[in-house]
């Protein structure tokens, strides 16, 4: 049974204290968020932010916000290790570009569907007269009923 990253009975240091080579106190601020079996998390956070800064940040936050802050620091640190210049901002920018591209593709596909349905309701099958529509009230209902 674990209690704040340490096993009861034997005081196994948390990942932070293990990396910093210090004794893990019972009230160690790192222990609940950096358990001994997840040392890679603290290693990347330590590399990017430093133990002192993480310690200060966690002490300034209310306990109910610390877990989210640690998750954010781990994400940012991993992104910063992968991309030292842009970090998670580079990943966010890339995702925004993908969203814009996919929205453009979706708009084109929707326009093609509308174009094909408009062609379906033209008075004759001549595709050059696509702008001429026979019954507009009928078209509006059938365009959006898939």
Automatic annotation (TrEMBL):
Pfam families: LOB. The lineage of its organism: Eukaryota, Viridiplantae, Streptophyta, Embryophyta, Tracheophyta. Signal peptide: none annotated. InterPro entries: LOB. Keywords: Coiled coil. The keyword DNA-binding does not apply. It comes from Erythroxylum novogranatense. PANTHER family: LOB DOMAIN-CONTAINING PROTEIN 3, LOB DOMAIN-CONTAINING PROTEIN 4-RELATED. This is LOB domain-containing protein. Residues 12-113 form the LOB domain. Belongs to the LOB domain-containing protein family. Residues 92-119 form a coiled coil.
């Amino acid at each position: 049974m674990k209690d704040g990253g340490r096993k009861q009975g034997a005081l196994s240091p948390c990942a932070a204290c293990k990396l910093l080579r210090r004794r893990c106190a019972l009230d160690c601020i790192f222990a609940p968020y950096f358990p001994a079996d997840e040392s890679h998390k603290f290693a990347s956070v330590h590399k990017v932010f430093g133990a002192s800064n993480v310690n200060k940040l966690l002490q300034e936050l209310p306990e109910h916000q610390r877990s989210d802050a640690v998750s954010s620091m781990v994400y940012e640190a991993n992104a910063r290790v992968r991309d030292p210049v842009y970090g998670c901002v580079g990943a966010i920018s890339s995702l925004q570009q993908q969203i814009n591209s996919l929205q453009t593709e979706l708009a084109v596909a929707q326009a093609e569907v509308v174009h094909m349905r408009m062609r379906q309701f033209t008075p004759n099958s001549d595709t050059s007269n696509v702008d001429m529509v026979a019954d507009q009230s009928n078209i509006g209902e059938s365009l959006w009923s898939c």
